Structure prediction request, 95 residues.
Amino acid sequence: MYVLFVINDTAPGFGWFGVIFAAALVAWMGLVQRALPRWLGAVSALAALVPLGVMVATGAVAIAGLIGPLWLVVASVGLIFSPAVSRGDARAPSG
Prediction:
């Protein structure tokens, strides 16, 4: 019965790890490939590393449900109003 309680308690947090994985990929594209603005890569790296660090250190997965939506809003608004992305100045990723 305890196992079902734990699964039920942590399941909503696991759903946001897809967004955290997307943040890690955006961080890679912004910091390594330079296909996105560097500030977005840095914010995305922070948004990806904090939940993973908390999960490894404490086992708590709910932090992804707190950081994931915030990152999603910041990244979306940042991409909408980023002049480099809207002009197409960002370098295309190379194969």
